[in-house]
Amino acid sequence: xxxxxxxxxxxxxxxxxxxxxxxxxxxxxxxxxxxxxxxxxxxxxxxxxxxxxxxxxxxxxxxxxxxxxxxxxxxxxxxxxxxxxxxxxxxxxxxxxxxxxxxxxxxxxxxxxxxxxxxxxxxxxxxxxxxxxxxxxxxxxxxxxxxxxxxxxxxxxxxxxxxxxxxxxxxxxxxxxxxxxxxxxxxxxxxxxxxxxxxxxxxxxxxxxxxxxxxxxxxxxxxxxxxxxxxxxxxxxxxxxxxxxxxxxxxxxxxxxxxxxxxxxxxxxxxxxxxxxxxxxxxxxxxxxxxxxxxxxxxxxxxxxxxxxxxxxxxxxxxxxxxxxxxxxxxxxxxxxxxxxxxxxxxxxxxxxxxxxxxxxxxxxxxxxxxxxxxxxxxxxxxxxxxxxxxxxxxxxxxxxxxxxxxxxxxxxxxxxxxxxxxxxxxxxxxxxxxxxxxxxxxxxxxxxxxxxxxxxxxxxxxxxxxxxxxxxxxxxx
Length: 478
Ligand SMILES: NC(=O)c1ccc[n+]([C@@H]2O[C@H](COP(=O)([O-])OP(=O)(O)OC[C@H]3O[C@@H](n4cnc5c(N)ncnc54)[C@H](O)[C@@H]3O)[C@@H](O)[C@H]2O)c1
Description:
single chain; alpha/beta; nine-stranded mixed sheet; six-stranded parallel sheet
């Protein structure tokens, strides 16, 4: 009789659970539909009109059909994934219940042993200086439903304490990053320390079974960076180095246009990131070659080189000729760039042995050439960031807030079309969002950073410095 009662109770429980899961599934579907409608509404409200050729009726119909097809496919995949998740959750809940029953029977039950994990990724942040305070903390705080920052580390404890106070009240503060690794719950490490620390910290984190987000540049040189890539490969953990500019919508737009062949073959590129007075943390780690790996080139230039090659469709650099200059180390010129002044910890008696300007040209396997100029300080009108791309069919200029496309109509008229995609997008937050998407497998999202691309960029940076050391002699990019 008691046996029958138990069976019935179990049966009722499962029936109740099934009904609850069905209810949850309906709710999730409803939420998803609402979200899609909301996103569409926001997109419609915020869309910036483009001066583009009007699509034909046939094109419109085709696009509509494709969108419908994509939507259906996405819905089907999401449904499948939800089904698997519900099944797993159901099994886990049953097992948990059984384990509680046994523990209670044995008198070993403790509530804390059976607290449900919240499913969020536990994060430890190393380095609570300028970049972490400007972008990473806010980005993780905005992701609090998916990521939980449980550890904050800085050798200057007061910086970690300030972050705890402002953003993550439950986090533990550390001054030695090795102690942070003792928290087994942490599965994602975010490295925001000076460049010379990146390789050691990333290797330690990866080999201890953590995924890693690391600030740019990857490391101080390609040899150090290769240690990171090798650790990622051997551990099977994910390494991503911040590529915030790749989330600039105008850059994304141009990249797509080039990929579709609208500019023809890109054979000439000119890129700049030049500051008038913006040497960061003068005398501190930023301006000490051993600690930073270099100056304007590795700090600013690496971002623009990466972006330009990404837009060009990842051609292989084969040789480079470059010069670097250090013209401002001896001067007391005030730093008028707000950003440059705030970064790093300046030291009036410290070292400044890195370039404040780098110029040069890279040639690619496909015959294209890229000229660059990067400066922390130079006597120009004002700061400028741009990439000019010339193709066999059309040309384009990327500016952070606008693209200009230079083309010819069928009748031979020369035209310029301007596209303003970017209102404001926080590239760091977008990159962190991408990492969480990938780690949680929530959407079919591709990781924005790839180790091979990191390696290609670091090899190019190394080659530029090698050429400059030889007074601009042409050197091969390995
Ligand atoms: N992606 C970008 O656009 C971008 C912009 C700025 C800086 N960065 C990069 O971010 C990194 C940090 O730059 P920043 O401007 O924040 O520098 P910063 O000097 O302001 O901050 C670095 C912090 O790391 C701490 N630190 C140093 N050694 C440590 C250690 N062993 N353990 C724990 N903490 C330690 C310092 O005390 C400091 O608070 C650099 O690699 C820099 O190149 C990237």
